[in-house]
Amino acid sequence: MDEQDVVRALAALAQPLRLQVFRALVVAGQEGLTPGTMAEALAVPQNTLSFHLKELTNAGLVTQERASRHIIYRAAFDRMNALLGYMTENCCQGAACAVGKSTSSCC
Fold first, then answer.
1. What is the phi-psi region of residue 54: left when phi exceeds 0, alpha when psi lies from -120 to 50, beta otherwise?
2. Which one of 9, 46, 52, 102 is least enclosed by Cβ atoms within 10 Å?
3. Please, what are the domains in the chain?
């Protein structure tokens, strides 16, 4: 994952509703969710949700698939893992990261 992709993904998640949507999709797993189900669960209008899903999709964090008359959205776990990998790539400057009992830092 290159730096621009990381910035785009973090920017997409830096909005409370988009973060809630992404987390709901992570919890749903590979089954995914329809926009109607998400809108109802998050108590947001479908047009508002549609805007935020578009932003998450453009950032590569969400995929969509048509299933009959429905669109199923899923978290893009490979992309999420790449983002987490990028963020932790230089954690502790190559040393093993283990939180000790006397410290809250891994470095």
1. alpha
2. 102
3. 3-94 (1.10.10.10)
Residue with tokens 């093993």: 96
CA–CA distance, 51 with 67 (Å, rounded to integer): 20
Residue from 34, 67, 35, 71 nearest 51 by CA: 35
Residue 101, C-beta contacts closer than 8 angstroms, at least 6 positions apart: none
Q: What is the pTM of this model?
A: 0.81
Query: Which amino acid is located at 29 in the chain?
Result: G
Q: Which residue is associated with the tokens 């209008």?
A: 45
The tens digit of pLDDT for each residue in 40-76 reads 999 999 999 999 999 999 999 999 999 899 999 999 9
Q: How confident is the model at residue 106 (pLDDT cuts 50, 70, 90)?
A: very low
